[in-house]
Amino acid sequence: MEIRNVRTFMMAAELKNFTKTGEALGYSQASVTAQIKQLENQLGVRLFDRLKNGVILTQEGRNFIPYAVSLINAVEEAEHFGSGDLEPEGTLVIDTGTSISDNLLPEIIADISNDWPKLRFRVKVMDDAEMYNTELDDGTADFAVSIKASTELVRHQVFGEFSCKTVFICRSDDELASRKKVPLKEIISHPFVTTDRVENYGHDFERILQSKGLFIDPVAEFSSTTAVMNIISQRGGVTFLPEYVVRTGVNNGTFAVIDAEEDIGLNLLIRFYRNSARWVSPAMKAFMDHIKSMADNDVQL
Q1: Residue 128 vs residues 2, 56, 147, 149, 282: alpha-carbon distances, Å
Q2: What's the CA dihedral at 22, 23, 24, 29 to 10 degrees?
Q3: Would you give the DSSP letter of residue 104?
Q4: Which has the closest alpha carbon to 17: 47, 53, 45?
C-alpha cells in the first residue's frame, strides 16, 4: 500500500472533490482518480461515491479514516527518525470559529512564521464544537481553538488556555463613548447588534442578562464578528464582544469601550486543543511550543 495514495485519500475526504485534491497536492485529476482506485482495489471496498459535482465518503471510506491517520502518523514518525534539530515544515490544519480566525490567529501565525518560515497553515472556520471533536479524532485537523464561557464540549487535550475580557463597544463619536458608569439597562436599550445568540458567548451573554431581568431586541444578528463591527462603524449602535476582537479598532479610534456601571461577569476562555493519541510531528511541536510559551508568559489575548 503506497502512503502517497493514503495521503491523497485523506485530502480527497476533506475537499470532497478529486480536481481540487489534485490542485492541492500537485497531481492531475486523472492521477488522483487512479490513486484512489488503486487504494480501493487493495482494500477491496469502495471508498467514495462519485457525484456530478464531487465525491462523498462511503461508510467504508469513513471507517478507513482512523487507519489512514495511523498509517500517515507512523510514516511521518519514521521519516523524522534521527532528524534531530531539522527545521519544522509542512501544513498544519486548525479548526476554529470566525472571531478567532479573523482577529486572533493571523497575528499568532505571523509570529510563528517568522521563526519557522517553512510552516504552512490552513484555518477552517466552523462553529460546531462537535465538528472539532470529529476532525481531531480522524486527523482531518491538527488543532482546534475555541472560545467559551462555560464547560467545553471538546473532549481532547488542552495545551494552551487564555482568559479573555469582554466589553461593550460603540462608535467613538457615539454619546455613550464619553460617559462614565453607564447603566446596563441604558446600554442595551440602544440599537444593539449581536453575534450568534445560540452558540458560544452570545448565548451566555443573553442568559446573564435574563438573570437580571433584562432582554435585548437586536436590530441585527451575525455569525461573523467582523460583520458586527462593520455595521457598528457604518450605522452606529452598541455591541458586546471579546476585547481581542475590537482592540485594533479601539486603538485606531474607530470604536470606544463603554464604561459600564456594572460588570456582567462574563469571563471567557480561549483553549487550544490537540488529539493526544496522535504522534506530534516537528511542525505540530513548533506550534504547540509557541502557544505554551505565550501561556507561560501570560500573554494577553
Answers
A1: 34, 20, 12, 15, 28
A2: -10
A3: T
A4: 53
Q: Phi, psi at residue 133, to the nearest 5°?
A: -55, -50
Instruction: Tell me which residue has cell 461577569.
Output: 265
For 228, what's the count of Cα atoms within 13 Å in the CB-facing half-sphere? Answer: 29
CB half-sphere exposure, 16, CA atoms < 13 A: 8
Amino acid at 269: L
Region at 66 (left for phi over 0; alpha for psi -120 to 50; beta for the rest): alpha
Integer angstrom CA distances of residue 231 from 53, 58, 127, 206, 241: 36, 43, 21, 20, 14
Q: How far apart are alpha carbons 185 and 86 in whole angstroms?
A: 58
Range in 81-95, 129-143, 238-252 the model is least confident about: 81-95
Cell triple for 128: 460546531
Express each pLDDT in 116-125 by its tens digit. Answer: 999 999 999 9
Q: Which residues are CB-contacts of 140 (< 8 A; sequence separation ≥ 6)?
A: 10, 13, 14, 65, 93, 134
Tell me the three cell numbers of residue 253.
479610534
Q: Are residues 83 and 282 in contact, defined by beta-carbon separation less than 8 angstroms?
A: yes
120 by DSSP, 3-state: which?
strand
Asked if the model's pLDDT at residue 149 lies above 70, the reply is no
The one-letter amino acid at 11:
M
Cα angle 45, 48, 52 (rounded to 5 degrees) comes to: 145
- Residue pair 229/255 in contact by the 8 Å Cβ criterion: yes
How far apart, in whole angstroms, are the C-alpha atoms of residue 238 and residue 104? 22
Tell me the chain's radius of gyration from C-alpha atoms: 23
- Angular region, 233: left φ>0, alpha ψ -120 to 50, beta rest: alpha
Q: What is the DSSP code (8-state) at residue 122?
A: E
